[in-house]
């Protein structure tokens, strides 16, 4: 009854997995949310991706969330000759802001202020830090470098300038066009890059509201400035936080990343925000059917620290073993979850505020699973998903079944730790609500006839948020 995995798995879709059949297999292997990286692929590509994801979920008979990852103003290479070129260690290379086809001697970078952002002696990283250049001198529109760590680079790969003050908005015109696309395609969640302060999210949220939509916006913590302002950012954005460890490991001394990850996950828990731990979790599985022991420990460590979800990037986008990577994630989570400190988290994970009725009721519902012996599950009727988020944040040891009349809410809740989702008709009264909760809990397999369930919800007439808690016996 309680063997359902609680940690959620996010998988990035790319050339290795871009078909309805493969997406269906990924769902069966354990994927809860598909990530579409808008930095790669055209709009028509992603229209097809959305259609294939929905068709795959229908084939399996479930719902899957779709996360659209905005490109952001991330510095990137322009087109390179043949799509990939090799940089030889010790060679010289010029980075230019001119629009030229990249070669091993000259690469075009999509950032006009590059020559003024760096100086002689600065480091420049390409391709998630795999390539390191050292600046020799800067001109008006180009930067001459030596290649310290070489390798292959591809068109549109990212460029990092550690320590440089990059004056770009978190969401530019191209990003807002992708927001419009996400609204048109009814994508469930959006992730915003290059956030440095809480106000950086405003343009995207405003664009969503102006269109009459309500897509939750997840903040990616990938810049040192975001790490410095993490508390204010996480408090301001209720939809959640993604810990983008790849960029953090380039922009910051790499030995600081584990401590920062732990701090960010603790802050997400403190303010009841969903969290995604991302980047290179099982990176060796891009080319190997087995992960390293260190990678397995890394995934388990994030779960022990309280992450809601773990994310696969290259492993499922371009890797040779995408299904095996998902299955490994699933096995690690199932093995780790029984050892989580559920009883301690109930009272100490989320910040307790005496005036916060909703959080107090959510905590009481979760605590009841320890004081009421045969309480089988917590059932959460919800329209927006807020009540389910608050209950999940307290990490109950029993299954949480969220039921909603809104399909969009059901799909979004796939990101929350321990929450299963079901669609239901809207309710006309409290009695009908409670009866439906018991019936659907039984249908979903989280409770049997005669067992008790806790029902917690928000009654709109009271304007208090989550304010209902009742124990109900399943008929």
Summarize the structure.
This protein has 475 residues and is α/β, with parallel strands linked by helices. Helix content is 35%, strand content 22%.
**Count of separate DSSP helical elements:** 17
Major β-sheet annotation: 8 strands, parallel, barrel
Q: Which sequence of strands runs across the widest sheet?
A: 1-2-3-12-13-14-15-16
What is the beta-strand fraction? 15-25%
- Could you estimate the helical fraction of the residues in percent? 25-40%
Integer-rounded radius of gyration: 23 Å
Q: How far from one another are the termini?
A: 17 Å
Q: Helix/strand-derived class?
A: alpha/beta
What is the subunit arrangement here? single chain
Number of strands: 21
**Gross morphology:** elongated
Whole-number mean pLDDT: 92
- Low-confidence segments: none
Task: Write up what this structure looks like.
- The strands form 4 sheets. Strands 1-2-3-12-13-14-15-16 form an 8-stranded parallel barrel, surrounded by 6 helices. The protein has a 6-stranded mixed sheet with strand order 6-5-9-8-7-11. Strands 19-18-17-20-21 form a 5-stranded mixed sheet, sandwiched between helices.
- Helix content is 35%, strand content 22%.
- With 475 residues, the chain is an alpha/beta fold.
- The longest helix is centred in the first third of the chain and has 18 residues, at 43-60.
- The chain is elongated and about 75 Å long.
- The relative contact order is 0.11.
Layout of helices and strands, plus pairs?
Layout: E1 8-12, H1 20-29, E2 33-37, H2 43-60, E3 65-69, E4 84-87, E5 92-96, E6 106-108, H3 114-117, E7 123-126, E8 131-138, E9 142-149, E10 151-154, E11 159-160, H4 173-184, E12 189-192, H5 202-210, E13 217-221, H6 224-228, H7 230-236, E14 241-244, H8 245-251, H9 257-270, E15 275-278, H10 293-304, E16 309-312, H11 314-317, H12 322-336, H13 342-348, H14 357-371, E17 375-381, H15 386-393, E18 400-404, H16 407-412, E19 419-423, H17 430-444, E20 452-458, E21 466-473
Parallel strand pairs: 1-2, 1-16, 2-3, 3-12, 5-6, 12-13, 13-14, 14-15, 15-16, 17-18, 17-20, 18-19
Antiparallel strand pairs: 4-10, 5-9, 7-8, 7-11, 8-9, 20-21
Helix pairs in contact: 1-2, 4-5, 10-12
């Amino acid at each position: 009854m309680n063997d359902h995995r609680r940690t959620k798995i996010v998988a990035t879709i790319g050339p290795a997995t871009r078909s309805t059949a493969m997406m269906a297999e990924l769902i069966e292997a354990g994927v809860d949310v598909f990530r579409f990286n808008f930095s790669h692929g055209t709009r028509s590509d992603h229209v097809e991706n959305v259609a294939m994801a929905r068709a795959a979920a229908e084939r399996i008979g479930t719902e899957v969330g779709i996360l659209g990852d905005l490109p952001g103003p991330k510095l990137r290479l322009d087109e390179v000759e043949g799509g990939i070129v090799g940089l030889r260690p010790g060679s010289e290379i010029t980075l230019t802001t001119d629009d030229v086809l990249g070669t091993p001697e000259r690469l075009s970078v999509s950032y006009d202020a590059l020559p003024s952002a760096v100086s002689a002696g600065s480091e420049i990283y390409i391709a998630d830090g795999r390539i390191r250049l050292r600046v020799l001198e800067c001109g008006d529109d180009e930067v001459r470098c030596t290649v310290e760590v070489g390798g292959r680079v591809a068109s549109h790969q990212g460029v990092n300038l550690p320590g440089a003050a990059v004056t770009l908005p978190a969401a530019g015109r191209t990003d807002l066009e992708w927001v419009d696309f996400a609204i048109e395609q009814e994508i469930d969640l959006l992730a915003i890059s290059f956030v440095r302060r809480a106000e950086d999210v405003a343009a995207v949220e405003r664009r969503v509201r102006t269109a009459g939509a309500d897509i939750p916006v997840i903040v990616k913590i990938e810049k040192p400035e975001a790490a410095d302002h993490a508390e204010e950012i996480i408090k301001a954005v209720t939809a959640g936080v993604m810990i983008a460890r790849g960029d953090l490991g380039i922009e910051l001394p790499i030995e600081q990343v584990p401590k920062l990850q732990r701090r960010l996950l603790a802050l997400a828990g403190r303010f009841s925000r969903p969290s995604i731990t991302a980047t290179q979790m099982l990176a060796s599985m891009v080319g190997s059917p087995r992960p390293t022991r260190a990678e397995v420990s890394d995934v388990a460590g994030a779960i022990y620290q309280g992450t809601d979800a773990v994310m696969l990037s290259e492993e499922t986008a371009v890797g040779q073993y995408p299904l095996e990577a998902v299955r490994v994630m699933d096995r690690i989570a199932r093995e780790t979850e029984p050892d989580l400190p559920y009883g301690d988290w109930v009272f100490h994970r989320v910040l307790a505020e005496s005036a916060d009725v909703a959080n107090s009721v959510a905590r009481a519902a979760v605590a009841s699973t320890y004081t009421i012996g045969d309480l089988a599950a917590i059932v959460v009727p919800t329209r927006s998903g807020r009540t389910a988020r608050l209950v999940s944040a307290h990490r109950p040891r029993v299954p949480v079944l969220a039921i909603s009349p809104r399909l969009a809410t059901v799909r979004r809740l796939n990101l929350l730790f321990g929450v299963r989702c079901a669609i239901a008709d809207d309710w006309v009264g409290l009695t009908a609500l409670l009866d439906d909760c018991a019936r659907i809990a039984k249908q979903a397999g989280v409770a049997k006839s005669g067992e008790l369930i806790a029902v917690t919800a928000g009654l709109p007439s009271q304007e208090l948020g989550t304010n209902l808690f009742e124990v109900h016996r399943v008929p």
